[in-house]
Amino acid sequence: MPKRLIQQKKRRRRPSGARRAARTLYRTLVVLSALVVILFCAYKALVHAPEQAPVPTPVTTPEPESGGGTGEEQEATPTPEPLVRKEGFYTFLLTATDEGGGNTDTIMVAAYDTVNQTVGVVSIPRDTLVDRDFPKINGIYAREGMDGLRDAVSDLIGIPIDYYIMVGLNGFQRLVNAVDGVDFYIPCDMDYDDPTADPPLHIHYTEGMTHLDGQEAMEVVRFRHNNDGSGYTDVGRAQTQRDLIVAVAKKALASPGKIGTYVDIFMENVKTDLSATDIAWLAEQALGVDLDSGVSTATLPGDGQAKYNGYSYCYELDQEACLELFNQLLNPYTTEITLDMTNMFQVP
In what side-by-side order are the strands of the sheet with 89-97? Predict the structure, then answer.
């Protein structure tokens, strides 16, 4: 065999260092791609849409037996139409405890429509009237726990509550610090001191736009009135809380690279019956929400001067106005919520 052919064969058997590196890189990329596909498939298999709470069974009242007439002559009692849940529509009870950790200082119901990518948030004033020995809704948690509060809220609005989320003030403070603070419009002058609180509480702000860190944001959401008794109502306080929460959420979603920090804060400072896979699925869906146009908020309208069972300043809900809000922002059904489905207690 000619010497030239032998040399060519030898060169083919010994690829250059560059070619060997290229082959190694190619094999590595193939392996990594396979791993990515496997992990993605595992993620999709494990992370799925959360379950919805069951729809309550309509209660029918049997007609009294009649002594005369045939079945055809007697008017038939119509069977109520079954309630049907909207696909991908979830309801949440959002709460925060007061400084003593007993009463729920903040109570909100949120509805997330993952199909239309809209969110509704409704504040329930803490003094909302309920038919109990202590007739204000913020006292239910200390007496009946989270299950009791969730049942009371569900009964009040007439819809099932899928999940609850209870946030500690420390968690809220840490989240604000994690997003490097938030710009927020203070709705009124705030001048309040409580040296007996643990730790002592001092809230001093001037109306207008300011930058709040975690401690300052916590003070703003806790503010109710000034030292001289002036300030805003419980309704105004609820609106400030909602506005600040939305502002923090916008800032958090603007920094998705800190998602690991947010998860750590959530897991350490939040009590919830959402599983880790539920949270992962909802977080993935929430990336599609436009917080400027897709979020609507409100406070349940009513009268805060009601008296009941020896207590003053109970908040009696305006049934018709509240029902309209329920249907606009919270309704998980394909049909309207009706007044008979709710239980908005009124002073006799």
Answer: 270-272, 163-167, 89-97, 104-113, 118-123, 295-299
